[in-house]
Amino acid sequence: MLPRITYCIPSKNNLEYLKLCIPSIRDNAHRFDHVISVFVDADDEERSTVKWLRENKEKYDLDIHINPFLGSKLFGIGKAYDYLIYNSETEIFSIFHADMVLGKDADLKAFEQLERGKVVCSTRVEPPLHPNAGEKIIRAFGIWPEEFVEKGFNAFVESSLNDTRVTNGVFAPWMMYKDDYRKIGGHDPALKSAREDSDVFNRLSLAGFEFRQVWSSLVYHFTGRGGQFQHGSVQGEKDREWQKLMNNSTREFIRKWGTGVKHTAMMEPIISPKLDITIVLDNATPDLLEALEPWCNRIYVNENLISDYIDKEQPNTETILLNKVCSNIRSPEGDIIYYLDGKTFSAQDFSILGQLPDLIYTQAKEQSRFAVQNFIIEVRKIVDSKKDLIYIKNLFG
Q1: Rounded-to-10 torsion of CA 50, 55, 58, 61
Q2: Nearest to residue 7, comparing CAs of 58, 60, 50, 51?
Q3: Based on C-alpha coordinates, what's the Rg of the chain?
Q4: Is the distance from CB of 292 to CB of 272 less than 8 angstroms?
Q5: Which of 6, 52, 93, 249 shows a CA-CA span of 20 to 30 A to 328?
Q6: Whole-prediction pTM
Q7: 3-state SS of 143-204?
Q8: Whole-angstrom Cα distance, residue 45 to residue 233?
Q9: Residue 280, φ and ψ in degrees, nearest 5
Q10: Tell me: the pLDDT tens digits for 305-346?
Q11: Helix, strand, coil: what percent of the chain each, to 5?
């Protein structure tokens, strides 16, 4: 029997999408009484998300939560998800985006594949805006909520309900048992606006969870229309703000994992070894320091660059940069040292930074020294610490 599920939906100035998202769960879910739990992280006067949710609380039986710092500081998407998850009363939760529309019986079709130790996701149907490597379905049922072709989407879902495919991959919306989720603690609050999902997927994978994508469980996804693109006439301004937030979260992800986000074509995580890496950068420039700092545990540069860089970058990161950005010394600390010269460092050198941990872990020997392009690499010892990143103490219990 399909149990009640808590649909966890953070919202940030995207009322137009909630007006489609919330009714779709009530209208199309196999079970009519799932919990719809919404966290309002930002709400401007024009959209009045809080007002609409309160007016429709009884109609849709909504569980409403509001950022206590609304209007002054973002809670952050991962933190908002965890607040909803840890305050939910059901055994199972679903991570759901405000710019998604649930297809008929998507809850049942996903649940049929759910077991302990598994994470199950639905399949996204998206308009033709972004590349597809086979992990989603491209169909044009509208780019904006005002033009959503509901009858067309519903008919497509009906035609797909007998699809028996189950593949290995993960993307929102995904569901799992709450007590399984507790085993990794939750989302990383350092990833405030993006990359929080990739971080969680890495950690779930390392903890041994299996990912299942169900192709008869469908959602329509407006592809970030409630986030990076925002809505209507404010698109350009919101785009710039989103790009800044995305850049900060991407840099935080690299600081943590030592590489950018990596996955198979079907969205199954690829996780490189997490090594202790030091960069010694001669002839550094402010731009090079900014580019290279996230890719290592510590970096040695000219002393005159340190203060300005820390003043500029510290507000964007949870890492204590005073402990990480150091002045040049003769005996740098660290298991693996990259020696670089700013005068010869090139775009091609930068492009291989994310590949070096795999190369070192699989091919290098301890107590060795070798060159790769303009890198001189000294390997003192090789210790992969990625499993130390699995668990995060959750803020909500």
Answers
A1: -30
A2: 60
A3: 23
A4: no
A5: 249
A6: 0.94
A7: CCHHHCCHHHHHHHHHHHCCCCCEECCCCCCEEEEHHHHCCCCCCCCCCCCCCHHHHHHHHH
A8: 15
A9: -105, 110
A10: 999 999 999 999 999 999 999 997 778 999 999 999 999 999
A11: 35, 20, 40
Cα gap 364→361, rounded to integer Å = 6
Mean pLDDT of 95-104: 98
CB-hemisphere CA count at 13 Å for 334? 25
Residue pointed to by tokens 């009906």 = 158
What lies within 8 Å, CB to CB, of 333 at 6+ separation is: 278, 298
Q: Which of 266, 252, 276 is nearest to 135 (CA)?
A: 266
Enumerate residues 6+ apart whose C-beta is below 8 A from 59.
none
Closest C-alpha among 222, 234, 208, 246 to residue 153: 222
Strand-pairing partners, residue 118, are 210
- Which amino acid type is present at position 359? L
State the sign of the Cα–Cα–Cα–Cα dihedral 368, 369, 370, 376: positive
Q: How far apart are CA 250 and CA 259, in angstroms?
A: 10
**Top-level CATH class of 5-257?**
alpha beta
pLDDT given at position 234? 41
Residue 297 CA to residue 293 CA, distance in Å, equals 8
Burial (CB < 10 A; 0-12, 13-18, 19+), residue 224, is: middle
Domain ranges (residues) in the chain: 5-257, 277-381
**Counts for the chain of helices (H) and strands (E), in that order:** 13, 16
The DSSP 8-state label assigned to residue 212 in this structure reads E
